[in-house]
Amino acid sequence: METSHDFLSIVLDERPLIDVRAPIEFQKGAFKHAVNLPIMNDEERHAVGIKYKEDGNAAATDLGYNLVSGEVKASRVTAWIQFIEENPTAMLYCFRGGSRSRISQEWLHDAGKDIIRLEGGYKAFRQYLLSELMPRAQIAKPIILGGCTGSGKTLILKDLKNAIDLEAIAHHRGSSFGHHIDEQPTQIDFENNLAYALIQHKSKGYKHVILEDEGKNVGKRFLPTDLVAHYKTGDYVIVEIPLEERVQITLQEYVIESQAHHIERFGEGQGLKLWYDYILASMHRLEKRFGGDRLKIVVELFKEAYDTQVISGTYICHEPWITMFLRDYYDPMYNFQMSKVQHHVVFKGNRDDVHSYLEALD
């Protein structure tokens, strides 16, 4: 039966993958373009594991074959075949590339379908991806895009071919109000997806990699410490735009677009209320750093804006509380963080000028 450890081509070709591990394993972390079609479900895996501890490998293997037989086996093979027919380049893996993936491969062969099995399985591929997150694996020179909150840095990144959007990979907008309706990926998935992005970036031969100025954390996910330190050695490009323009960018992203996503998912009434609750909860989480008195003011501004929007349908009423948060919370925090470390700033300008500067970098 054919095996492969050509992990690079899996990433570059974005190969579909069949993960035959149990669902509980898959949920902790998997790979891009992988689907969980387990050879054993969680209960079956648990029973086999107990049998292995009590009576050894042979008894555990026999139990596995008994549990996954007849119609159960047929349904799982059928699911694998259907996926392979829809994704002819698919490959197969289990945790270590051992018995589960080998047996799955054999059952498929017996059913007239051949598939390549990942040599070393999940563990080997995961180690390969982790190695690509090490500073020594980085070739492109980092360029860090900085600027006050609401400067539209993410909008600039999305339009650059040699940029990597860490917030998109982490599924978080980076600020205290930045979580999306859907949960962030697991830490393992975040690391795997980031490695995919870095490998694909490297394969294109870019001399620079452009990233937004992030801390170690993006929401609840964190970048490897050594990789953060490597990025901090890069040159800085700072986008500078007036507060009024930043208010409009923030209004568009965190109010108009965020409300639309909530309404699309939950319906107008419930969606708008869930958005209101999430913004209010985010505000209260900042009470210690923002200050209780100022928080009371901004909360009142927010509640008034929400009530006005519900009655009139206008969004402009949200500008006062957004302005206060940007001016009195985010700007001082950003200025303090920039003052702590001496950054090598190579360019400053408005959004168009910064975009042109970065676009000229290969």
Give the second-level CATH assignment, the architecture of the largest domain: 3-Layer(aba) Sandwich
The coarse overall form would be globular
What is the straight-line distance between the termini?
Answer: 43 Å
CATH superfamily of the largest domain, by name, is Rhodanese-like domain
- Give the helix proportion (percent range): 55-70%
State the low-pLDDT regions, or none: none
The total count of helices amounts to 17
Spatial order of the strands forming the largest sheet = 1-5-4-2-3
CATH class of the largest domain: Alpha Beta
Main sheet specs = 5 strands, parallel
The assigned structural class equals alpha/beta
Explain what the structure shows.
The protein has 362 residues and is an alpha/beta fold. The protein has 3 domains: 128 residues, Rhodanese-like domain (Oxidized Rhodanese, domain 1), CATH 3.40.250; 107 residues, no CATH class; 88 residues, no CATH class. It is built from 17 helices and 11 strands. The strands form 3 sheets. The protein has a 5-stranded parallel β-sheet. Strands 7-6-10-11 form a 4-stranded parallel β-sheet. Strand 8 and strand 9 form a beta hairpin. Helix 13 runs antiparallel to helix 15 and helix 15 runs antiparallel to helix 16. It is globular. The model has no long low-confidence stretch (mean pLDDT 93). One of its GO terms (molecular function) is tRNA 2-selenouridine synthase activity. Pfam families: AAA_SelU, Rhodanese.
Question: Outline of this structure?
Answer:
Helix content is 58%, strand content 11%. It has helices at 7-12, 23-28, 42-55, 57-67, 70-86, 99-110, 121-131, 153-157, 166-170, 187-203, 225-231, 243-266, 268-285, 287-290, 292-312, 319-340, 351-359, and strands spanning 3-4, 17-19, 34-36, 91-93, 116-118, 141-146, 208-212, 217-218, 221-222, 235-239, 345-349.
